[in-house]
Write a structure and sequence with these properties.
2 copies of one chain form a homodimer.
Chain A (H helix, E strand, L loop, with lengths): L4 E7 L3 H12 L3 E7 L3 H9 L5 E3 L2 H5 L4 E4 L6 H8 L8 E4 L5 H10 L9 E4 L19 E5 L6 H13 L3 E5 L1 H29 L8 H7 L6 H10 L1 H23 L3 H18 L3
Parallel strand pairs in A: 1-2, 1-4, 2-3, 4-5, 7-8
Antiparallel strand pairs in A: 6-7
Helix pairs in contact in A: 4-5, 7-10
Chain lengths: 285, 285
């Protein structure tokens, strides 16, 4: 069943927050939406595109009386926003976020939130290199995947309501434990961002390569154009999985270098063949 | 001025060879094209799609009397084909190849070919994950870049004729020294392939990630679906640049890991910001 919210507070009026506001309004899922931000220009833009009904620079005041609070700030600021709104949340309020790393945020909530917990972490896997409320789209979450926190200590009704929220705006919801989320996302998204950064950086350091790039380079460096502060925060909030994953990658590269150094055609065949199978096993295309 | 060839021999009837045959025919640039291969099924397919006028399994016989010979075999087989056709090349014949690495092939030709050399290496940066003559397309080289060997010892008329060939089928030609070609391509293409392989391999080894992949993973692993034997050969024929480039990448990852380990937000900002600028400096989009 479609969820309905009387008063929604969206903290952080960027691409994800504004798109959520637009999606809720387009589907008639919310009566009134307040947008909270720190920059008046962003708040004005969120109002102008119709993502929110009013704006505020005071998260705590805006969260009072809300039955849904969605924290859409960068990952590193979510914990502070949780502390800010927790004292004013009503017993009926459901709270979630959109950060790309979940262990830090959900761990903080687990330590500080009343039990059973009505903050349930989310990671909608949507977005683009564009940012800011002016790029908000009511269909941003359509056909996307949203990973929603699972585990002990959560209020079951709140968990279902958060899942219903994302389903209602078009996402397919999967439940996942925060630690496993961060370990897997490090491999599928966070470390690939570091690698994309490395490809672009080392190519540019090497000389003028503009004439020598093909589609592979374009595809593999596209996400290097993402916002530095977003990925800085993701690295900082997913520290252990990032360090483990980078170590794995270093070992993988060492095996490749060894095969090349020794001219070992069989080993190279095996490495590329495993990759070929792995690509097919992980992507339905 | 458009070049014209009376008799073209294309050795290797795969995607690149068949597409070249189709492109020459579509533009009326060749009177007669012979396709050479080792597998009857591929030769039949090349004939069927109209990429060649006749087929042969004997490269030497097919090359005799040709005024253009294009070696379209995998990189590791080009040197052998050069040895095969060299004794029968007429004084007027122009010879080129399409291998993605150039130092091994061009170095071999420099050591074995009569001077001034009428073998001039090419690297048309076109193709796809598809392969085989049945995927050949007359427009494969349109709007692509083709890197053509430059340097001492080349026959100037042959060099111009090879450049004119690729220009005539729609490519933009840039000249480049083979050593510099391999060093740059290692950074823009060959090492990115190894990294794409690593992303897919390590993600699949880590567990079932199918539900947790986004557009970044799709883009960054697309080339992991390439043919293992092609990339094995590229690694083997671009050994030194690959080893240097992988070592650079290891150092880059170590710097990233250090910044994460130390929680150094400033260092992470600087790394991602440099990548952002590097992406914009290397890709016109």
């Amino acid at each position: 069943m479609e969820p309905h919210f009387e008063r929604v507070t969206i903290i952080g009026a960027g691409l994800l927050g504004a798109s959520l506001g637009l999606a809720l309004k387009a589907r008639g899922l919310a009566d009134y939406i307040v947008g909270v931000g720190r920059r008046p220009a962003s708040l004005d833009a969120a109002l102008r595109v119709g993502a929110v009904d009013s704006v505020s620079m005071d998260a705590r005041a805006a969260a009072e009386g809300a039955d849904l609070i969605v924290i859409c700030t960068p990952a590193a600021l979510v914990e502070r926003q949780l502390d800010e709104v927790r004292p004013v949340c009503s017993a009926q309020a459901v709270v979630t976020d959109v950060a790309s790393t979940k262990q830090a945020v959900c761990g903080h909530a687990a330590r500080t939130w009343p039990s059973p917990r009505r903050f349930v972490g989310s990671h909608p896997m949507a977005g683009s290199e564009k940012f800011g409320p002016e790029h908000g789209r009511a269909d941003l979450y359509e056909n996307s995947v949203c990973l929603v926190e699972s585990g002990a200590g959560l209020d079951e009704e709140a968990r279902q309501r958060v899942a219903a929220l994302w389903t209602a705006v078009g996402a397919t919801v999967f439940e996942i434990d925060p630690a496993r989320h961060d370990a897997l996302l490090a491999r599928t998204s966070h470390i690939p961002h570091v690698l994309a950064a490395g490809i672009a950086t080392l190519a540019a350091r090497h000389g003028d390569v503009r004439r020598m790039i093909g589609q592979g380079y374009r595809d593999m460096t596209r996400i290097a154009a993402s916002r530095p502060e977003v990925w800085r925060d993701i690295c900082l909030t997913n520290r252990n999985a990032m360090l483990d994953g980078i170590r794995e990658f270093q070992e993988y590269l060492a095996a490749f270098a060894r095969a090349i150094e020794e001219g070992d055609a069989g080993a190279l065949d095996a490495l590329f063949s495993e990759a070929n199978r792995a690509r097919r096993a992980t992507v339905d295309e």
